[in-house]
TrEMBL record:
The keyword Zinc-finger does not apply. It comes from Acipenser ruthenus. One of its GO terms (molecular function) is ATP-dependent protein folding chaperone. Signal peptide: none annotated. This is Heat shock 70 kDa protein 4. GO terms for cellular component: cytosol; nucleus.
Length: 351
């Protein structure tokens, strides 16, 4: 029996297996260990992963991403209604009242549930795992955000069943990160000694999660968690995208949907290129060519409020979590940060 671990993210997902005395993240057919969380529908076929992401500009109305946020949510949920205006594809209400996604597939208009979309993505991950292991895979463990409700967790299990998985356990992402940190640590305190406190800070693409964990050899205890489900890397992207859209509107009147998709795609790529805070330049190849840029200093100014909110989130979590009266601990916690968008957030957080 083979059990795989699955991490389905807003932008990308991973599948890992235990073999050769360790944990290996499996590479897909592109020799990439991450698979984009995109599903694209065309007149004759359906694409998943990297092939789907390549169509995010050319087939934006039928290329779906970010559906992780819609799992288990009613269509009338205020969050869903606020997100509708930001999406290139259309949302619709399912007969059960949950959120569906309307698009064109095989030249027909169809509505898929968020669970079906997640199931399609997990089917791709299942194929990737089976190709790596050379045998069928049925059982899995899936990580979910710590703030997921019971309805959202049930939706994840439904999606896994659609993909043919038997989900043995849903594990909070905060717990999964702590487990990954401590499982191979050889220098952890003995069980009778004071535990080592570690603060895990994860600024993902769609959510912000912080956890405080105590480690002893062979023992892990989650002491506190905090989260902001509406703060993530996408919010930093939107600040720059809004800035680029204003400048673009002043220069030309083009297809707004195509232009917006192009700006998002280019901004994401250029930010990765200028990770150290340099100039970001977006080049749009529409009927006319446009070059729009923002300097590193202007970028800092545009994102100042979000950076301050991100950093101010940490002290209350670190200082105010309550330990049992009989629970000894070290006085200075260790910080483990995960934030690929803004290196300066890492520096400010540690300070």
């Amino acid at each position: 029996m083979s059990v795989v671990g699955i991490d389905v993210g807003y932008q990308s997902c991973y599948v890992a297996v235990a073999r050769a005395g360790g944990i290996e993240t499996v590479a897909n057919e592109y020799s990439d260990r991450s698979t984009p969380s995109f599903v694209s529908f065309g007149p004759r076929n359906r694409s998943i992963g990297a092939a789907a992401k390549s169509q995010v500009v050319s087939n934006s109305k039928n290329t779906v991403h970010g559906f992780k946020r819609f799992l288990g949510r009613a269509y009338t949920d205020p969050f869903i209604q606020s997100e509708k205006a930001k999406l290139p594809y259309e949302l619709a209400q399912m007969p059960t009242g949950t959120t569906g996604i309307k698009l064109m597939y095989m030249e027909e208009e169809k509505v898929f549930s968020a669970e079906q979309m997640a199931g399609m993505l997990m089917t791709k991950l299942k194929e990737t795992a089976e190709n790596a292991l050379k045998k069928p895979v049925a059982d899995c463990v899936i990580s979910v955000p710590c703030f997921y409700t019971d309805a959202e967790r049930r939706s994840v299990i439904d999606a896994a069943q659609i993909a043919g998985f038997n989900c043995l356990r849903l594990m909070n992402e905060t717990t999964a990160v702590a487990l990954a940190y401590g499982i191979y640590k050889q220098d952890l305190p003995a069980p009778e000694e004071k535990p080592r406190n570690v603060v895990f800070v994860d600024l993902g693409h769609s959510a912000y999660q912080v956890s405080v964990c105590a480690f002893n050899k062979g023992k892990l205890k989650v002491l506190a968690t905090a989260f902001d489900p509406h703060l993530g890397g996408k919010d930093f992207d939107e600040v720059l995208v809004d800035h680029f859209c204003v400048e673009f509107d002043q220069e030309a009147q083009e297809d707004e949907l195509l232009a917006l998709a192009s700006i998002y795609h280019e901004e994401e790529f250029r930010r990765a290129e200028s990770a150290q805070g340099g100039e970001i330049r977006v080049c749009l190849q529409l009927p006319q060519d446009f070059n729009i840029f923002v300097s590193g200093q202007d970028q800092h100014g545009l994102e100042k409020d979000r950076v301050e909110h991100t950093v101010s989130f940490l002290p209350p979590v670190v200082l105010n979590f309550e330990l049992p009266s009989d629970y000894p601990s070290t006085s200075s916690p260790i910080f483990t940060l995960s934030c690929k968008w803004l290196p300066r957030i890492q520096i400010s957080s540690v300070q």
